[in-house]
Amino acid sequence: MLSDDEIRQEYAILKQSGKNPAAFGELYEKYYDKIFNFIYRQTDDEDLTADLCSQTFLNALKNSHRFEFRGVPVSSWFYRIAANEVNKHYRKEKKIRVFSIEEVKVRELIEQGAEGWDEELIQRLLNYLKELPTDMLEVLELRFFEDKDFKEIAFILNITESGAKMRTYRALDRLRKNFNISIKYDGKK
Amino acid sequence: MGRNEIRLRRQLMSSGRIARHRNYTELMRQHDKEVRLKRVLRVFTYFLIILFLLILLLIIIRWEGKQSAKTAFLKIKATPEVITRVLTD
Question: Smallest CA–CA separation between B50 and chain A, in Å?
Answer without folding.
Answer: 28
